Amino acid sequence: MKNRNQLKVRFLGGVGEIGKNMTALEFGKDIIVIDAGLTFPSAEMPGIDLVIPDISYLVQNKDKIRGIVLTHGHEDHIGGLPYILKDVNAPVYGTKLTLMLCEHKLKEQRVNDYTLNCVKTGGVVKLGCFSVEFIHVNHSIPGSCALAINTPVGTVFHSGDFKIDLTPINGEMIDIPRISEIGKRGVTLLLCESTNVEQEGYTMSEHVVGETLDRLFADNLKRRIIVATFATNVHRLQQIIDLAFKHKRKIAFSGRSMLNVVDAASKVGEINIPENMVVDIEKIKNVADKDLCIISTGSQGEPMSALTRMAAGDYNQVQVGSNDTIIISASPIPGNERSIYQVINNLYKKGAEVIYKSITKIHVSGHACQEELKILHTLLKPKFFIPVHGEYRHLKKHCNLARSIGMKDNNMLICEIGDTVELTQKSMRRGEQFQAGSRYIDGLSIDDSESVVRDRKHLSEDGIIVAVCCVSEYTGEIMTDPDIINKGSILTDEQVLEAKKIIFKTINAFDLKASADLSEIRNSIRKNLRNYVFKKTKKNPMILPVITQV
After folding, report:
1. Distance, CA of 421 to CA of 372 (rounded, Å)
2. pTM of the full predicted structure?
3. Domains of the chain, first to last
4. Calpha distance 299→204 (Å, rounded)
């Protein structure tokens, strides 16, 4: 009976990392999934395009899944959905813009069999034994929600990504009254985002950026303005559009994701663009610099983004020059700093003026700082707390913050991917580990094996040596001089000759006429060559011996 009365909270992503958010709640024969995000590959993942959660557990239990509920439309919360729906055909629930962005992604990935269910903020959906209420919160994209999930062991409150903005662009504040009511009713478990927990005070309002942008438009009346920002920051896009209209400029959108988001947000009424204001990016040569504002992707220095290509001089539609003022309205995501500053350097080399966060207040976060997190904790008064959406240091600091306002240590847990937490109305403890981790997207293929990434990293760092040798099937003699193919590992001509001698010596140590095991010979060549190459170069290239019998 004990196990039947436990809610299992399973972490498939978003803990111990930034991005790839996915959590599952399981009770008896019912499972609901919260978010289906992705993350982008680090420099240690050569050749990988995207990283999504390993959903092996969900595939094994797909008959139990009652639905996937989405908190908002950012990539780290919806980007993995097309790949997941190919294996788990569950109904999806979210707000209007969130689902519109999902639909774009599903069509791009040619996913045809799906069900999207639109929920208004304040709406409630029944999914098996769970009842999920969507609660409006402030974030950097419209339609963002926290989730109040009624379960057999009480309410689980998932914050989603949020901040408390007293002057939001669309005039809709976070629903503090409803959150307070839920707190009074009682919350068993709080799952709360931790992205900005290291920042003291409160997150600045989006209006601060609008004031800065207005000043920059006024200061550059004769120059062309290019603004790079996150495509999904719809409130920021609306401010830029409004300011361009105020300063009598046409606008042109650059970048596929920018066009997709603007199209989706326009269809659901979250972006309003005056008539005859938009110019096709391929026709901007007909518009004077002083009359044009280009809104572009590339605020993170992404290799194929519009701004990066402009900076490199290989973007035909936009040639950057000395009459351009380029505004990068975003903060660097940790790990992207080098790429962004390289783009900024290249833009300066082309004569442009570049404005970015280090210079002026051109970006504000969409995530709650310490005082806002304290407000949410205080309103909800949860029995138990698990921090989510952060690296380990963020989760640790969030527990410290919760402790400072009265949460007991034995009522908090820091979790990792693959952890299960077993929850009752009166207790919370760690449960079983389950298979979880990452799946790697390379083009259209998906690979679950981390060995692929390890091999690619190995190749990128130390290169590869292919040792090819042809031997007689009848006499066992080496027929031709061994061939050394050396890529990414620098061997001198003298070292190549010495490597060939090592291959000769290794093969001759075996009796090929007695049907020696070729795999044993290959392993011996690999070992001897590796020892020699490391001794000479201090490198450890991948070594592939190839023996052909003729």
Report:
1. 26
2. 0.80
3. 3-201+365-450 (3.60.15.10), 206-355 (3.40.50.10710), 463-549 (3.10.20.580)
4. 20
